Amino acid sequence: MSRSSLTPIFSERTIMTNSSSAATYQICLGVRLTPDRASWFDEMTIATDDAGHTLMTGVLSDQAALHVVLAKIRDMDLPLISVTRLDSA
């Protein structure tokens, strides 16, 4: 069966987003970052609490920038607790 003979189940849609809007995010990790690991997140302000969590806060230019930070967290195998959008920048 050729590809051209297939009937599409879903039609193409355009999703409109305001992806160019900068926003402030706070990301909570379940570990304290060592200084060498913290350097991977230069775009974020990093603080730790007594429970051993790391709070990273910063203005990210758009959703793509947020996904870059989340990919770094994933690649470093860090335990992600939460991601919170605080406001639009």
How would you portray this structure in words?
With 89 residues, the protein is of the alpha+beta class. Helix content is 19%, strand content 30%. A four-stranded antiparallel beta sheet has the order 2-3-1-4, covered by helices on one side. A hairpin with a 5-residue loop joins strand 2 and strand 3 (54-60). It is globular, with a radius of gyration of 18 Å.
Number of helices: 2
State the low-pLDDT regions, or none: 7-17
- SSE order in H/E notation? EHEEHE
Overall radius of gyration? 18 Å
Which quaternary structure do these chains form? Answer: single chain
Report the portion of residues in β strands: 25-35%
Question: Helicity, in percent?
Answer: 10-25%
Shape: globular
Distance between the termini: 51 Å
State the main characteristics.
89 residues; alpha+beta; four-stranded antiparallel beta sheet; 2 helices; 4 strands; 19% helix; 30% strand
Could you give a quick summary of the protein structure above?
19% of the residues lie in helices and 30% in strands. With 89 residues, it is α+β, with helices and mostly antiparallel strands.
Q: How are the SSEs placed, and which strands pair?
A:
Blueprint lengths: L22 E7 L5 H4 L6 E4 L5 E7 L2 H13 L4 E9 L1
Antiparallel strand pairs: 1-3, 1-4, 2-3
